[in-house]
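Postdoc handover notes: sequence design on the structure in folder B. Input C-alpha cells:
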C-alpha cells in the first residue's frame, strides 16, 4: 500500500487545489491531506483568513 501526502493552505478551495489533490491521489493507494493551521497561515500570509 502506497500512501501519498499532500499539504497546503486551501484558504478558499479552488479548481487548482482540486487538480493538485487529484494528481496527488494518482500516485498512491491512500491520500493523506495536511491542512495548515490558521496561526501558520496568518504568519505566512500576513493577513486575516477568509
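Designed sequence:
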Amino acid at each position: 500500500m502506497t500512501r501519498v501526502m499532500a499539504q497546503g493552505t486551501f484558504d478558499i478551495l479552488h479548481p487548482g487545489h482540486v487538480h493538485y489533490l487529484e494528481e496527488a491521489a494518482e500516485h498512491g493507494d491512500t491520500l493523506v491531506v495536511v491542512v495548515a493551521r490558521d496561526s501558520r497561515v496568518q504568519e505566512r500570509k500576513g493577513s486575516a483568513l477568509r
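Context for whoever picks this up: The longest strand covers residues 3-8. Don't rerun without checking with the PI first.
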